[in-house]
Write a structure and sequence with these properties.
- The protein folds into 3 domains: 174 residues, Thiamin diphosphate (ThDP)-binding fold, Pyr/PP domains (Rossmann fold, 3-Layer(aba) Sandwich), CATH 3.40.50.970; 152 residues, 3-Layer(aba) Sandwich (Rossmann fold), CATH 3.40.50; 222 residues, 3-Layer(aba) Sandwich (Rossmann fold), CATH 3.40.50.
- The strands form 4 sheets. A 6-stranded parallel beta sheet has the order 3-2-4-5-7-6, with helices on both faces. Strands 11-10-9-12-13-14 form a 6-stranded parallel beta sheet, with helices on both faces.
- It is an alpha/beta fold.
- Strand 6, helix 7 and strand 7 form a beta-alpha-beta unit.
- The mean pLDDT is 94.
- It contains 22 helices and 20 strands.
- Helix content is 39%, strand content 17%.
- The structure holds flavin-adenine dinucleotide.
- The site of flavin-adenine dinucleotide has 32 residues, from strand 13.
Length: 575
């Protein structure tokens, strides 16, 4: 029986679990682990970022794209604190993550030592597994437990590792840990399935709402929707579950969604929810029957009154339903939805054809589409960029990721970093507002350093435009939303990348063609019209009242009246 350092044993364990990349920043309290990683650098790549938040957000995006565990690492104290945002992103979007944070030497715990932060307390709310490693002997077993828990519970596992623990010598028997784990997928219940079939057969106006939990079942979703001639709406992270150009597609649901999706929901008599925990009940049908398919029993009936719940995998359930329902080839309800959708697309196309300067964000979406490969990865940031991308990009086979539940600004660039690093042969395009990009911009230089030729498109309006419209629709005056200007194209060049500053519509085409052919990371910094309004697909009465209150308050308080959205847009989204 030989001896091995605990850190080497744990790195060996990572290899057994298929962990082959870690994002982070080394430093004192975690350096004993970093040293072990250095020795295995041909098997596990360690990528140094400029800010720990980018490490955790990239790890989260990696997990969203691959289904594999994302791993990040930082020193204790400040480094650990910086990781929090990406950790919450993983927690809330239910993806597995392993976090390694350093900790002061065990013999000094509790002495108010330099950078002593109680990381176990710090991560209590975010983690599904959260332990301080107390001995070299237990380190591999604890690490093994952390990884299997992160996978099983689709959440964040954290190991706080006192500086001295990884260097301890242990028996090499520790390497014989079992890295197999069985993920239990609930078997489908026959009675639920036949109840669902009966409901589907009886429905006149069924609508499918597909969430991110249906994205692995694209083929099955398409077959089912076609079999029963039902319209399909998607949630924000569900975008791509059915290609935007499919004849049954009626767009996204919700504020950032389409008017046809809103209308279809309002006249549906059966809602079929597939892999979704969609939260905004006001956009769902009133009093319709409901079939819900979800792998997690806790989700059945959580948001909507469910008539029949099917607990199980979406692909399996849809396959069963497709082969047991009565086929419908001609459904007047679908025809009506398709007529609404044709009108909606004509509006969207008209917006994308806007050739004016200042540039319409919708025209930028057209430019992105013109260079996007069929298997590109779109990493969409939070803000008005979310609205423009969701509404105007036609996703076919591309991946589309976003910080859906945490809604953190600054997720666009880390997502593109993870995408380009993990899939070097695919295009990675980050679509960001200037406010969001500036939160993580230092890590553009990481992409340059590692030669990841991703493309960042910045919709630069020098303001927090999503907040601007939130304030307006709530009847508040705009306050605290404006920024100074940064020339992000110059910044790109300063980092060693390529930069295009686009101020006029006529410059768009050349910038995007240049970016497509670049072999270094690129920023396209587009000055967009700050008054382009991300109106809801369907303006509801409360929002209309809010806008009216904002306009009258502006006059009464002698506030500089921000430009209101064009009347034709307001009318088309309201009526
Ligand atoms: P989740 O909530 O993650 O649910 C996925 C479900 O799938 C889970 O219940 C899970 O158990 C289940 N599942 C997983 N695997 C399987 C499987 N194999 N088989 C079956 N089930 C499975 N969202 C909108 O839709 N509309 C909006 O207008 C909107 N506006 C937003 C605006 C901003 C600026 C931001 C940041 C976010 C916005 N969101 C919007 C996102 C919103 O907050 C929610 O995150 C989103 O609606 C949830 O989508 P989901 O139900 O697909 O994902």
């Amino acid at each position: 029986m030989g001896k091995i350092k605990a850190s080497d044993a744990v790195v060996g364990l990572f290899e057994k679990w298929g962990i082959d990349r870690i994002y982070g920043i080394p430093g004192d309290s975690i350096d004993t682990m970093v040293e072990a990683l250095r020795k295995q650098e041909s098997k596990i790549k360690f990528y140094t970022v400029r800010h720990e938040e980018v490490a955790s957000m990239a790890a989260s995006a990696y997990a969203k794209l691959t289904g594999k565990i994302g791993v990040c690492l930082a020193i204790g104290g400040p480094g650990a604190i910086h990781l929090l945002n990406g950790m919450y992103d993983a927690k809330m979007d239910h993806v597995p993550m392993l976090v390694l944070v350093g900790h002061i030497p065990s013999k000094l715990t509790g002495t108010d030592y330099f950078q002593e932060v109680n990381t176990v307390d710090l991560f209590k709310d975010v983690a599904v597994y959260n332990k301080e490693v107390t001995s070299a002997e237990s380190f591999p077993a604890v690490a093994n437990q952390a990884i299997r828990t992160a996978y099983q519970k689709r959440g964040v596992a954290v190991l706080s590792i006192p500086d001295d623990v990884p260097t301890g010598e242990i028996s090499d028997q520790a390497l014989q840990l079992n890295t197999v784990f069985e993920k239990k997928i609930p078997g489908l219940v026959e009675d639920d399935l036949s109840d669902a079939v009966a409901l589907i057969n009886a429905a006149k106006n069924p609508v499918i709402l597909a969430g991110v939990g249906s994205k692995h079942a694209k083929k099955e979703l398409k077959a089912f929707a076609e079999r029963i001639s039902a319209p399909v709406a998607v949630t924000l992270p569900g975008k791509g579950a059915l290609p935007d150009e499919h004849p049954n597609f009626i767009g996204n649901i919700g504020k950032i969604g389409t008017k046809p999706a809103y209308e279809a929901m309002k006249s549906a008599d059966l809602l079929i929810m597939v892999g979704t925990d969609y939260p905004y009940a006001a956009y769902l049908p009133e009093g319709a029957k409901c079939v819900q398919i979800d792998i997690d029993p806790v989700k059945i009936g959580k948001r909507y009154s469910v008539t029949t719940g099917i607990v199980g995998d979406a692909a399996e359930a849809l396959t069963y339903l497709t082969s047991h329902v009565t086929p419908v080839s001609d459904r007047p309800f679908l025809k009506t939805c398709q007529e609404h959708m044709a009108k909606w697309w004509s509006w969207m196309d008209e917006d994308k054809e806007n050739k004016k300067t200042p540039i319409a964000p919708q025209a930028v979406m057209k430019a992105i589409q013109s260079i996007a490969d069929d298997n590109a990865i779109f990493s969409v940031d939070v803000g008005t960029a979310t609205v423009w991308s969701t509404r105007y990009l036609h996703v076919t086979n591309q991946d589309f990721i976003v910080s859906a539940w945490l809604g953190t600004m600054g997720c666009g660039l880390p997502g593109a970093i993870a995408a380009k690093e993990a899939f070097p042969d695919r295009q990675a395009i980050a679509i960001c507002g200037d406010g969001a990009f500036a939160m993580v911009m230092q890590d553009f230089s990481t992409a340059v350093h590692y030669k990841w030729p991703l493309i960042v498109v910045i919709l630069n309006n020098k303001q927090l435009s999503f907040i601007k419209y939130e304030q307006q629709s709530a009847g508040q005056l705009n306050y605290g939303i404006n920024f100074g200007d940064i020339d992000y194209a110059k910044f790109a060049e300063a980092c060693g990348g390529k930069g295009y500053r686009v101020e006029k519509y006529d410059q768009l085409h050349d910038a995007f063609e240049g970016a497509k052919n670049s072999d270094v990371p690129v920023i396209i910094d587009v000055s967009v019209n700050a008054d382009a309004a991300p109106l809801p697909g369907k303006i509801v009465m409360d929002e209309a009242k809010g806008y009216a209150k904002f306009a009258s308050k502006s006059v009464l308080e002698n506030h500089k009246l921000e430009k209101m959205p064009p009347m034709k847009d307001v009318v088309r989204h309201f009526l």
